[in-house]
Amino acid sequence: MTDIILNTASTSVIHCGEGAFSKYAPRIEGRKFIVTDTNVYKLYSNMIEEYFADAPIKIIPAGEKSKTLSKLTEILNAMADASLKRDCTVIAFGGGVIGDIAGLAASLYMRGVKVVQIPTTLLAQVDSSVGGKTAVDFKNVKNLIGTFYQPQEVIVDPIFLKTLPTREIRCGLGEIIKYGALDKNIYDKLLICL
Length: 194
Ligand SMILES: NC(=O)c1ccc[n+]([C@@H]2O[C@H](COP(=O)([O-])OP(=O)(O)OC[C@H]3O[C@@H](n4cnc5c(N)ncnc54)[C@H](O)[C@@H]3O)[C@@H](O)[C@H]2O)c1
Description:
This protein folds into 2 domains: 2-163, Rossmann fold (3-Layer(aba) Sandwich); 166-194, no CATH class. Helix 3 (69-81) crosses helix 4 (96-108), helix 5 packs parallel to helix 6 (166-182) and helix 6 packs across helix 7 (184-193). By secondary structure, the chain is an alpha/beta fold. The strands form 2 sheets. Strands 1-2-9-6-5-3-4 form a 7-stranded mixed beta sheet. It contains 7 helices and 9 strands, in the order ββαβαβαβαβαβββαα.
């Protein structure tokens, strides 16, 4: 397992490797609020309940169509209804859509609460969960409304990729190949995998 410290405006810790979820999820402190989507919840509700028992949860429909201001408002409503305070942590448990919208909700609620990204798609694991970009789509423009807001931690565990449809694996591989074209180290590693 690898731990990477990213020194950005605020520091993010990335825990990466097999077993990262079972090791680091129980260490997330304080009151937690889970955001996930319908597909991910169907597959991982047992895990969510085991590791985040009693945490309030907001489940939104899967897919890009949920990256809207109205779903963002629903998430913020659910956070307020759960009486969350500034010391809470939003857990973004899902693909890039969940990471983007839950990250945005965390950046807005009470002027910003902690967010931990638990990416469950390959694309989210290699790209969107890291770097702190959050957004929803607006007026048919992708990512028109958003913030830069670094996650406290990112927990990247390949266990979640076992249930990922081939199409989604291909999307993530596309991103990896793109990075390979830009970075010789990644390019060389990709060649070894072939
Ligand atoms: N913030 C950033 O820097 C950044 C970078 C790239 C992309 N993005 C955003 O990411 C989004 C795309 O992310 P995505 O490709 O992860 O899409 P997604 O979140 O819609 O997930 C794709 C599908 O996979 C399902 N899924 C998720 N995890 C699963 C699992 N473990 N097993 C089975 N099914 C699973 C989801 O329910 C969904 O149907 C876009 O909105 C894009 O704008 C953000």
